[in-house]
Fold:
Amino acid sequence: MGIQKSIVLVTVDCLRADHVGFLGYECPTTPFLDSLAAESFVFPAAIVAGAPTYYSFPAILASRYPLALGRDALGLAPGEPTLASVLKQAGYATASFAAANAYISAQFGYEQGFDTFQDFLDDEPEPLASEKLNGATARGWASRLNRKLQQARPSLGPLGILYDELYFQYCQRKTPVPNSLDALRRFPAADVIVNEACQWTASVEGPFFLWLHLMDPHSPYYPTEKALALLGRCPVSPFRARYLNSYWNRSDLDPRRLARHRDQVIALYDAGIRWVDAQLARLIEMIRKAGRWENCIFAFTADHGEELLDHGGRYHPPSRLMEELIHVPLLLRVPGNAKRKAAQSPFSLLHFAPTLLDAAQAPIPSEFQGSSYWPQIQEGQSYDAVAISECVAGCTNPFRPENRLGPRVLSVREARYKLVLHFDPPAEHLYDLEADPGEHAPLAATSAKPVRRRLLEMAHAHLKRSIGQRDLVAHAQVRLRDLQLEWKNSAAKASAAPS
Ligand SMILES: [Zn+2]
Structure:
């Protein structure tokens, strides 16, 4: 075995595959990553094993289907082997810097295997005023008037729509506007995370594993002003940015009306991606200057996409599995390996961790459900694979324990066909992604019967494995951790409440 290679893994929240340059996006969101793609393996069809964040990361870090421990078990199980724990055991220095996403915090077992684990959750500000703009934030007489109007709202009939509009506009104008987009931002931007990562990387000798999770394209969309400039966009005032985010967040509007501002919202989303790209350029320049880049594996992917109205939805609910939610970018740069054309077959992120460990010549835990595709990828061979993704109907984001026991939703995706299965009420939709990449019209139930049967059989085999091979001890441990957490939270609430 040669010298151990260091590994940098970057995951970006809400990043759709079709919004990066190296997968064909026409807007220049990722010039640096595009340049890296020339020396990397680029996966044209990387598919997450579940969405959103909490159903995606068990596969990315621990090569495990999100519902394999049961629908009531969230996060990683105590002692579950992960990329971090394997590499730490192999002698790597390990660190994680994540931009304040509670679902991948220590609460859910994600600190396991990391020497340094910084989740930035203490810095998270109170929910923003902008998110309350539909609510009663006005004071005094205006508030009293508003309460009266709110009570009268159901009896207004068609006038109610006008009322909603006027009230929204009123709140927008009445609520004080901060003087920069920075003050509106909910999560630390990529530059903050990369600063920490640079400092840590400079402080370690020997091989390291660095995992960064960046939230810049996550809603609410408040990119840095510099990122807008880098994209060649006109500046967006804090008032306008807040207006767009609040408008986009309105529950009283149908997709047709939301679509009025779609392009401007996407411009903000894209600027978040542009900032990630600029900061990764800085991180890698630093690693290069330290003379460590030629011995460093770099992997870039996302935990799920974002709907952006493709099928009427806006964000990333845990109950749908359309391509805009499950198809993510994946770029893998392994020094010493010439770029080869990647197979068109879907690559499930279930296989990501074992493939990455194999590329780094590190051992692969037997507990991993996925397997390494490194031999095929390295040789540029095609492989015939399906990607299964799962989530839960009726489950919500943010996650609420009372909603997590709904029936599963499954998708089985091949290069051309994709079957989406609902169990209650039962429904199956088969799409021909070649003829209908936007998944607008499922094939008629009478057509493509052999394909349908093949994919159904795979879905059943998956379910059988998932339920039959459940690790009951891990399940119990996760449930115990959840209960302790709930108990701690309610105890904290009780002691904080005025007596
Ligand atoms: Zn996420």
User: Anything to note?
Assistant: The pocket of zinc ion is lined by residues 13-14, 52-53, 303-304 (CB under 6 Å). The longest helix spans residues 262-289. Residues 124-139 have pLDDT under 50 and may be disordered. The longest strand covers residues 6-12.
